[in-house]
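Quick review question:
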């Protein structure tokens, strides 16, 4: 398997994993009710905090791997002359996807600090 095919298979894999992790993160946040949290015993808040740490870490790590994979695709896209037609994509599109994913990762960091504060 050549490096371009491997990079695209990794892209497909990470796209699916990131989507699943975002869904899990979104569901967790949707299930949190700020008013309800005020009445939870500390042990239940601790349990929610532990669960959130796992969800957050998973999504953060996947974003990082996805960004790395996009960087690799950008380099390959710029350097390989004979790209198969089914793999042709404008480099600007890959750059935009990388920028959006980087922004999502930054927002995750900001929002997670608030969640950690709420659950602590």
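Suggested answer, residue by residue:
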């Amino acid at each position: 398997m050549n490096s371009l095919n491997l990079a695209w298979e990794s892209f497909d894999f990470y796209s699916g994993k990131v989507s699943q992790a975002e869904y899990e993160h979104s569901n967790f946040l949707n299930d949190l009710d700020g008013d309800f949290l005020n009445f939870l015993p500390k042990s239940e808040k601790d349990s929610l905090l532990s669960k959130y740490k796992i969800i957050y870490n998973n999504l953060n790590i996947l974003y990082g791997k996805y960004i790395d994979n996009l960087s690799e695709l950008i380099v390959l896209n710029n350097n390989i002359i004979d790209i198969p037609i089914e793999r042709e994509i404008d480099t600007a599109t890959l750059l935009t996807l990388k920028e959006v994913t980087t922004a999502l990762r930054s927002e995750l960091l900001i929002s997670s600090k608030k969640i950690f504060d709420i659950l602590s």
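Why it works: The mean pLDDT is 92. Residues 70 and 98 are 6 Å apart (CA to CA).
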